[in-house]
Give the backbone structure.
Amino acid sequence: MNHRTHTTGTQPRARIGGFTLVELLVVVAIIALLLAILLPALSRATESARRVTCAANLRGIAQTSILIAESRRGTFMPADRDIGRTRSSSNATTPSIANPPTDTEGAGHISWMNGLLYDELLRNDINFSKFNCPNRVGNNNLPNIRFFIEGDTAAYDNFDDLPNGEVVNRVRIGYYLMAGRYRTYEDKTEDDGGAWESILKQTQKARAGLMVIAADINERGTQNPTPSASFPHGKTGIIVAPENTDIHETEAVGGVTAFSDGSAIFQTVPDLRRYTIVPGASSFSGWWSGDVNIRVNSGSPGTGGGGPGGGGIGGGGI
């Protein structure tokens, strides 16, 4: 005789695999918390790596500039934007302090160089990517490497895009290049930027012993491509602000400066000094290492003596 057991009511169902809504929300909250912790750390690590890249780029620019100067009996090549090659001439004008390059608007801006100097740097194994600040790459509103040909206002972001048969007349770069600037950067009050000298010969000395060859672009007053102030090394990357913003009004951390001994170091904002970057235009200011390229006395250019340019062209630099 078969006996069957009967149960009344509904049987409990086995749970189907998956998460409840509460469990999903908990997981999402945990992931969000981890991202909030890790992303700033990742951004800071990325920024640290880019500082290293900038230091390597600027060190390469400085060391190659020094090699070129050594091949020219200790004289740095002229760097100003509007001197040098045209379609009808391949030779650069040789300026001097007594006969400086012709002034045109912005010609002395130290984030520009002429095409002849650019070519010479390339011949000495500097790849054009060395002139790109990694924190400016991809931001077309900020100064970075751009090529120009004579009489053409169009900018070419890639060398290979230049029209056939044309040569580079001038180049805007992603760093400041101070060497070879044959013009005077005027004395200003401390609030309006500091006076400084360009290194023209290797024998020049500054108050701190070294001269600056190149540096990060920490700048207020930029007008082109877009009016702005920009500081490449914030805590997590570049800082872009309104054009008249001072570096001390931001969370900028500092900048890299390359020196006349071929070294390049990162310095924090308190160790940077404000300078003029375009002759006759105090609204354009930049920040780099303090106490270098600074005049020791107020003697006139070319007088020699105790100034940092005592061994420069004409006996006194600029």
Q: What stands out?
A: The CA atoms of residues 39 and 118 lie 38 Å apart.
